[in-house]
User: Which sequence fits this backbone?
């Protein structure tokens, strides 16, 4: 499972997950519609749909993408974002999501 944290300009955290890369792309596009033209990198080469989605969300939010359950659980203690005021809420929401999905125990 892929876990995503978004913190918007008002410092509100949103935590969600995707089952795989295609599900992640679908959900990212639903949250932040992409431009109609094909995105390109700094060298004018076309970029993947995933990279385009991440770049679009990155413009609007502070975010983290954890590629699997283990990484998300490990980052609860390691990510410096969670030691900030705006990151504290994100940490609580990610922890609750991981408990709900039975990735970690409630007393983790």
Assistant:
């Amino acid at each position: 499972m892929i876990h995503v944290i978004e913190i918007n300009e008002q410092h509100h955290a949103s935590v969600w997950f995707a089952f795989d890369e295609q599900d992640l792309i679908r959900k990212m596009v639903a949250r932040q519609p992409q431009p109609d033209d094909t995105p390109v990198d700094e060298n004018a080469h076309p970029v993947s749909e995933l990279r385009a989605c991440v770049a679009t969300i990155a413009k609007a939010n502070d975010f983290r993408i954890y590629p699997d359950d283990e990484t998300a659980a490990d980052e609860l203690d390691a990510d410096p974002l969670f030691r900030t005021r705006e990151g504290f809420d994100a940490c609580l929401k990610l922890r609750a999501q991981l408990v709900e999905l039975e990735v970690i125990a409630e007393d983790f």
About this structure: The longest helix spans residues 85-100. Residues 2-100 form one domain. The chain has one domain: 2-100.
